Structure formats: C-alpha cells, structure tokens
C-alpha cells in the first residue's frame, strides 16, 4: 500500500490504527472488539427513555440500570452452571472440536509446533501465546492452543483469562444503585425549584443519534462524489 500511495498510508496511520485495526490493538485488554456495538446496544436500550423530558429520562435510565444490575447478578449466581461465561464456554467448546484437526509436535514441555489446515504455528503454553494471536488478543485459547493443552492432558478452561470467569462477572455487578423515593416523600423547602423550560423544535423528534460520515455508507458515497478526501 505504501508503494502505491505513501500519502494514504501516512493519513491512515494518523487516524489511530490502535482503535480500529486488530494488528495494532493492545493485548492487555483481552478484547478484539473494534466497533461501537456496545454503545449502539445501550443507545437502543434507552431509546424510549430518550424521548421523555430530561428528569423523566434520567429517572427511567436509573430504574432500568438498577434492575439490570440486580438481574445480571442473580442470573450469574443462580443460573450459571460452569466456571465461565456461557457464551465463552460455547466458543471454547467449538474450539475443542476444531482441535481434533490439529497435529501437535512438542518442542519443550511448554512450546509446541501445531499443524492445522496446511499451516504450521507455534504455541507457548506458559506465556499463553500463539502465532495466530487469537489467544493473545482475546484471552480464549484458539484451536491450536486447545490441541496443545489436550496434549498435556490438562483442562482447557483453566487457561482462559480470568476476566471471563464467573467470579469476575460477579465482581463487575457487585455494586448497586440505590432506590429513589417518590415526590410525595421528598422534604419540603421554601425556595422555588422550577424545571427547565421545554422547547419543542419543529418536525418529528429525532430518536437515532447523528452518525459520522464514515459510519453511514450513503453519506460516505455522497462525500466522495463531491470530491472530499
């Protein structure tokens, strides 16, 4: 790409490749998500509350989050059967099936050469790394690592990063939001407290957020048509 257009490469690097390119993402986060799906999910979660007045909107969001934190904690403590998050356990089970296609050759007690689908990779169990970088990036053993762990006759679940465990999930939801009493139980004061004036603009109220031109392909095409680069 640099041979074709070096200016484009410089512009590409200035955009912050660590934010959207997996090859530049830091490995200590144990997450390969480079999109704003989490933000979009929460935005859709509070969609109805956003159409209310400011005070009512904040109260609805507070109530929803209070209920969600309590339900998530109860779900993890009572319904989870394994030590890992259910979706992570499901992904790990699929890796176990793929591991049957791998051929493991030991180099040391912790380093292995793994052949898989006409490819050869190196796995280091002690450092929890693989040539494919999936284990490094996500913290979940790839099929090459799973095959190496099976070669040692050890449990694969014990090599999953601690952030995916049931204990870590419960620690994330160990906090809570205090209940809020109704207006009739509020203390009376002498000073008047009026809510901010409500200003209704023309047209139908907007519910979806304004997207960046890079997020909307139609806007991006229109910007390219006008000569914008």
Would you kindly provide a written description of the structure presented here, covering whatever features stand out?
The protein has 229 residues and is α+β, with helices and mostly antiparallel strands. It has 3 domains: 1-35, no CATH class; 38-79, no CATH class; 86-169, no CATH class. The protein has 9 helices and 4 strands. Strands 1-2-3-4 form a 4-stranded antiparallel beta sheet. A hairpin with a 4-residue loop joins strand 3 and strand 4 (129-130). The longest helix is centred in the N-terminal third of the chain and has 25 residues, at 54-78. Mean pLDDT is 86; it is low at 221-229.
Outline of the structure:
The chain has 229 residues and is an alpha+beta fold.
Keywords:
229 residues; alpha+beta; 3 domains; 4-stranded antiparallel β-sheet; 9 helices; 4 strands
End-to-end separation in angstroms reads: 17 Å
How does the helix and strand content classify structurally? Answer: alpha+beta
The helix tally amounts to 9
Estimate the mean pLDDT confidence. 86
The helix content is 25-40%
Largest sheet: 4 strands, antiparallel
Order of helical and strand elements = HHHHHEEEEHHHH
Low-pLDDT segments: 221-229
Secondary structure layout:
Elements: H1 6-14, H2 37-45, H3 47-50, H4 54-78, H5 86-98, E1 103-106, E2 111-116, E3 119-124, E4 129-130, H6 134-138, H7 143-151, H8 166-172, H9 217-225
Antiparallel strand pairs: 1-2, 2-3, 3-4
């Amino acid at each position: 790409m640099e041979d074709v257009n070096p200016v484009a490469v410089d512009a590409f690097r200035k955009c912050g490749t660590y934010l959207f390119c997996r090859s530049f993402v830091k490995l200590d986060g144990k997450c390969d998500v480079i999109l704003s799906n989490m933000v979009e999910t929460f935005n859709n979660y509070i969609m109805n509350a956003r159409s209310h007045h400011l005070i009512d909107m904040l109260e609805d969001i507070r109530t929803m989050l209070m209920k969600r934190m309590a339900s998530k904690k109860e779900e993890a403590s009572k319904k989870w059967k394994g030590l890992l998050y259910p979706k992570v356990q499901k992904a790990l089970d699929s890796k176990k099936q793929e591991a049957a296609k791998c051929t493991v050759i030991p180099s040391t007690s912790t380093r292995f050469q793994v052949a898989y689908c006409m490819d050869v990779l190196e796995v280091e169990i002690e450092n929890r790394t693989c040539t494919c970088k999936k284990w490094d990036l996500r913290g979940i053993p790839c099929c090459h690592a799973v095959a190496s762990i099976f070669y040692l006759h050890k449990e694969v679940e014990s090599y999953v990063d601690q952030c995916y465990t049931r204990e870590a999930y419960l620690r994330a939801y160990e906090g809570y939001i205090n209940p809020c009493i109704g207006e009739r139980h509020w203390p009376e004061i002498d000073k008047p407290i009026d809510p901010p004036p409500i200003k209704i603009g023309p047209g139908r109220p907007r519910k979806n957020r304004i997207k960046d031109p890079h997020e909307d392909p139609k806007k991006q095409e229109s910007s390219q048509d006008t000569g914008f680069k």
